[in-house]
Amino acid sequence: MDWQALIKEYEGFLKLEKGMSPNSIEAYLSDIGKLQQFLELNKMERGPEELDREQLSRFLTWISELGLSARTQARILSGIKAFYHYLLMEDLLEKDPTALLEGPRLDSKLPEVLTVEEIDRMLDLIDLSHPQGRRNRAMLETLYSCGLRVSELVELKISGLHRAEGFIRVIGKGDKERLVPVSSRALREIDLYLSDRNTLNIQTGYEDILFLNRRGRMLTRNMVFIIIKELARDAGIQKTVSPHTFRHSFATHLVEGGADLRAVQEMLGHESITTTEIYTHLDKAYLREAIISFHPRLK
Questions:
Q1: Which terminal residue of the chain, N or C, has fewer Cβ atoms less than 10 Å from its own Cβ?
Q2: Are residues 161 and 223 both part of a single domain?
Q3: What positions carry a catalytic annotation?
Q4: How far apart are CA 166 and CA 196, in angstroms?
């Protein structure tokens, strides 16, 4: 079966027979689009009727590895199930391969997701008159705007800032290097912080490290955890918040906004046996455009 023809017919069904709003229809079609992306990345040229439960389970594993919230994963699965129910109803399938698929438990201990408003509340609580205020604000803005791991954040280098191009160079797991789009807001906060940084007695070997403690040395991961936990507490956020929460929120906000999963996975620096080769050849201008279009900080 031809994907595009089926999707067109399905769109008509949702509009005319189910009476769904344009936004709801767009969400359902977006979920199908994510399945198509997965098939494309894995070079699986197959119609929906050729997919079995095992292959669809691999798709669910893939979206889970992106770091999406359990609720987002469940919503995507619901959209895929609805599509297959339609195919079954139209006698285009004899058996529904999604019938026994299970999504993540919504009460499972997956990382929390912060709203943009909650992130802003935390940032607004930072006392900029405090010696480390500018640093903390720049650090958290960068963490959220770029979806970094905490280890990547503390190891960021000044020489890795490419302001004109709008990228930062990140060294991820296994010393793998990647370029990540950075918002003008984060760059502005970094520039404001650099004035304070220049007053520090910077220790030998840390001259190129961006975020430093008051003794002129690299921040520890634990210090970043403490800063974030205290801000979340002061903001009255009743969630378990850590540096990874910002990375998790970055991915979730992008995907829920409609960003291409390939771009999100590249930004996160995820390693995958099915995607690594393709991602290393993706065009950087395309990746930057994808992030700019869908990240709340870059709109």
A1: C
A2: yes
A3: 149, 173, 244, 247, 270, 279
A4: 22
* Token representation of residue 202: 């910077």
3-state secondary structure of 177: strand
For residue 110, the model assigns a pLDDT of 53
Residues 228 and 241 sit within 8 Å (Cβ to Cβ)? yes
Residue 155 belongs to some domain of the structure: yes
Does any domain span residue 103? Answer: no
CA angle at 280 for the pair 274 and 286, rounded to the nearest 5°: 110
Tokens read off for 227: 């800063």
Residue 184: domain span: 116-294
Taking CA atoms, 237 is separated from 114, 121, 221, 229, 251, in Å, by 9, 9, 21, 10, 20
Is-contact 18 252, C-beta < 8 A? no
Question: What is the per-residue burial (b if ≥16 Cβ within 10 Å, else e) of 236-275?
Answer: ebeeebbbbbbbbbbbbbbbbeebbbbbbbbbbbbebeeb
| Cβ contact 44:84 at 8 Å | no
Q: Is residue 8 part of a domain?
A: yes
Side-chain-side CA neighbours of 24 within 13 Å: the count stands at: 12
Sign of CA dihedral 203, 212, 295, 279: positive
CA dist list (Å): 275 to 42, 82, 279: 7, 27, 6
Is residue 147 within 8 A of residue 172, CB to CB? The reply is no
Tokens matching residue 21: 């709003």
247 contacts 143 by C-beta, under 8 angstroms: yes
- For tokens 């438990």, the residue is 105
Same domain, 125 and 60: no
Q: Give CA–CA dist 142/247, Å, rounded.
A: 10
Contact 60/18 with Cβ under 8 angstroms?
A: no
